[in-house]
Write a structure and sequence with these properties.
By secondary structure, this protein is mostly helical. It has helices at 3-16, 21-37, 44-50, 54-69, 72-88, 93-99, 114-132. The chain has 7 helices and no strands. The protein has one domain (3-132). The protein is globular. Bound molecules: zinc ion. Residues 35, 50, 80, 84 line the site of zinc ion.
């Protein structure tokens, strides 16, 4: 997913979940920066951060660190991995199908089906609210 989800919508959802404008900005900027910090093409370990099933485990890992250290950058990372896990599908099957012209572009919010959009929003809001409540 691109900046529409990782930056713009994440910032909006964070505000709606009760974060201050400043905190929402930190969360959204770290969510967006994750692709540059851990580019999928750089290593196998990085690939697992952007595709299910590994991305779910990374999301949990970053989320726990976020709660334990009250670290909003880690929360942004946790959101990024969960958002990618939904959008990209298992082991990048959506990218392979897209490259063959058989499937929509998996990183485009605009052409994502409503069910995918809803799941991305749900996994994002769920983590934001859980963090606000201080729960692991
Ligand atoms: Zn990514």
């Amino acid at each position: 997913m691109g900046p529409t989800v990782h930056l713009v919508l994440t910032r909006e959802w964070a505000r709606e979940c009760g974060f201050s404008g400043e905190d929402a900005e930190v969360i959204a900027q770290s969510d967006l920066a994750f692709d540059a910090s851990f580019p999928a093409r750089a290593s196998l370990a990085n690939i697992t951060r952007h595709f299910a099933p590994g991305a779910w485990a990374w999301s949990r890992h970053y989320y726990r660190r976020a709660v334990r250290c009250r670290d909003l950058t880690m929360l942004g990372y946790a959101l990024h991995c969960a958002q990618d896990a939904v959008a990209h599908g298992t082991l990048g099957e959506n990218h392979v199908l897209a490259n063959l012209g058989l499937r929509r572009e998996p990183d485009s919010w605009d052409v994502a089906p409503p069910g995918i959009r809803q799941r991305i929003e749900r996994v994002s809001r769920e983590r934001l609210l859980r963090y606000r409540a201080g729960r692991e």
